[in-house]
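Re: export button greyed out
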Amino acid sequence: MGAPLVAVDAAPLNLQALIDAISGPETGDGAVAAFVGVVRDHNQGRRVSFLEYEAYVPLAVRALHRILDEAREAWPHTRLGVHHRIGRIEISEASVIIVAASPHRTDAFAVCRYAIERVKQIVPIWKHEHFDGGDVWLEGATADPDNEEARQRAHRIACA
Amino acid sequence: MRVTILLFARLRDLAGSAELVRDVPAPATVQTVWSTLVGEMPTLREYERTMSVAVNADYSKMSASVREGDEVAFLPPVSGG
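Workaround output, generated via the alternate export path:
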């Protein structure tokens, strides 16, 4: 029983398990690209102590599956998996892992990049930053999966 | 009719609660639920133009209909990754 292609939970992330779920001997892959997002010790001039991630889990899972569908449509011969960790995550620990597999490296890199850009646009997950002297909720994009301009921006970045 | 309201991240902190149950007049939309909420907690109004909304764990719009027992979520701008 392999790892699911999409996960949003508090368990530490296991990159090899996701790679094994995405690619294997009979997939015809020539490239597997992985992205690991880790918690940084500084942000906007603040010394970060740790991050606490919160998610609307059922919608986050649904949004991640949407990203998988979008990637499959844009890059038909690729496969993608995304696991996002939530709860308290320490400096240098992984908060998100993304694995994309393809017959050739260009598409594997592109899908990997597309996925992280889309995660930041439409997945309902929030960082609560705890730093020296306080804490703050970070807020990025207004999540709108039907915003075609945002989707195209992610696609352009992925193919740059 | 009765609906469940879910709040996340800083919206939850401002409201002091992650989950609220409220009666709203029928027929209701997501906007009706939001108006009920900000009537009670005016500080939440700052999110009106930047938040996203969901009904029963699916992205939705302020104009969408809401039915008895629905779960209506208000989401600040996201910051995953």
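The first strand of chain B starts at residue 2 and ends at 7. The button fix ships in the next patch.
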